[in-house]
Amino acid sequence: MFSSMLFHFSMFLLLINSSIQMTFESNIGKTLNHINGSLNLIANLIKNSENQLQRKIDVMIQASPNENRTLTEYVDCQKKHLDAKNRQLVVEHHSKLGTLKTCLNTEYERINSKILQFTQ
Q1: Hey, what's the signal peptide range on this chain (predicted)?
Q2: How many independent structural domains does the chain possess?
Q3: Would you say 9 and 93 are in contact if contact means Cβ atoms under 8 Å apart?
């Protein structure tokens, strides 16, 4: 699940990087649409994974009703662990996106200043 998400996120970053090297303004719309599609795909993958996991948990609890409390405690513990791990990944990728945003803004300003030089 996470390897698939990281793959899509890496592709997302690769697309943004390649768009900087191409004509910035003509490709930004296409890139943003692709990013939006990738983010929607990731959101769907996460939702499907959560649903599958919940179904498996329900089956486990139904199969062992005497162990319901133990299984529920285990599931809660694992969810907390995964939430903490996911939060760390989100923080790391948010930082990378912040850096990327700064690069995009710098590149956009550089392109605009060149355009202004040619029009004067």
Answers
A1: 1-21
A2: 1
A3: yes
Concatenating the DSSP letter of every residue in 52-90 gives HHHHHHHHHHHH-GGGHHHHHHHHHHHHHHHHHHHHHHH
Continuous H helices in 22-63:
24-63
In the numeric block, the tokens 């699940």 are attached to: 1
Q: Report the alpha-carbon distance of residue 73 to residue 27 in Å, rounded.
A: 50
Between 55 and 32, the higher pLDDT residue = 55
Residue in the block written with tokens 């990944």: 89
Q: How many angstroms from the chain centroid is the CA of residue 35?
A: 10
Range of the domain at 93: 2-119
Question: What is d(CA 90, CA 96) in angstroms, rounded to the nearest whole number?
Answer: 10
Extract the tokens encoding 103: 């690069």
Is 25 in contact with 111 (CB distance < 8 Å)? yes
- 88: which 2 tokens? 């760390």
Tell whether pTM > 0.85. no
For 44-75, write each residue's pLDDT tens digit.
Answer: 888 888 888 888 888 887 887 777 677 778 88
